[in-house]
């Protein structure tokens, strides 16, 4: 199975310094700073990358789980919101809220919700992010 | 403190389907597929995003920790390698290996190593990825 690589460099101190990251595929890379992470400067940050990773993994995994159950989805869209908060004085990634909209012919809302909750626990990125409270709300389109 | 948003859509089944993701900042977004995730097709995947998130957070956090200790780094570069493996038949993100090179005037290798191991445990993304075995090897430049 694959190993995926990415790099990041930070130069200078926490507040005045600057960072950049890039993935080996060439598809992902940007600069970041104290301002883009902890304040409201425009730009990306690790929490946005985690939200993208969780959303991407979750949409793929729920599609796979529904397919395996004999009710394949036409489309699964996941909006992920990753919150950073200060806990005991330390910046802490507390929650990942997922809002899922799924187009799945022939199933009802309760069946979708059951599948959505199972995928929340079972998908690979969820099983990596066990330090975070992941919450899922799924809606049939 | 901020909440960061990203979205992803998967259309179709696991093997024949296709996905795309994007972050709200506009700095991160790409397509992905079964091939780019589990095989060797060119492109990105959630594991590369996790590697980028960990590398970005770690480089920033080690710089902050060294600054707080009175020995600020000029530069911290982190290469992150995120491995996906099959465990009990399930795709599982098993390890995140970090290779760190740091330019830090006035400290020795043992002091850097101690700081690097502390940051491994303490940085926000490490404390989120508690389902993954994170390993750090740090070198003074």
Summary of the model, kept short:
2 copies of one chain form a homodimer. Chain A is built from 4 helices and 6 strands. Chain A is of the alpha+beta class.
Defining key terms:
3-stranded mixed β-sheet; 6 strands; 141 residues; homodimer; alpha+beta; 3-stranded antiparallel β-sheet; 4 helices
Shape of chain A: elongated
What's the CATH topology label of the largest domain in chain A? GMP Synthetase, Chain A, domain 3
| Average of per-residue pLDDT values of chain A | 97
Task: Please report the first level of CATH classification, the CATH class of the largest domain in chain A.
Answer: Alpha Beta
Tell me the CATH superfamily of the largest domain in chain A: K homology (KH) domain
Major sheet attributes of chain A: 3 strands, antiparallel
Tell me the β content of chain A: 35-45%
The total count of strands of chain A amounts to: 6
Largest interface: A-B, 82 and 82 residues
Q: So, CATH architecture of the largest domain in chain A?
A: 2-Layer Sandwich
Walk across the major sheet of chain A and give the strand order: 1-2-3
**What number of domains of chain A?**
2
Residues in helix, % of chain A: 25-40%
The quaternary state of the protein chains shown equals homodimer
Low-confidence stretches of chain A: none
* Rg of chain A, alpha carbons: 17 Å
Q: What's the number of helices of chain A?
A: 4
| Termini Cα gap of chain A | 34 Å
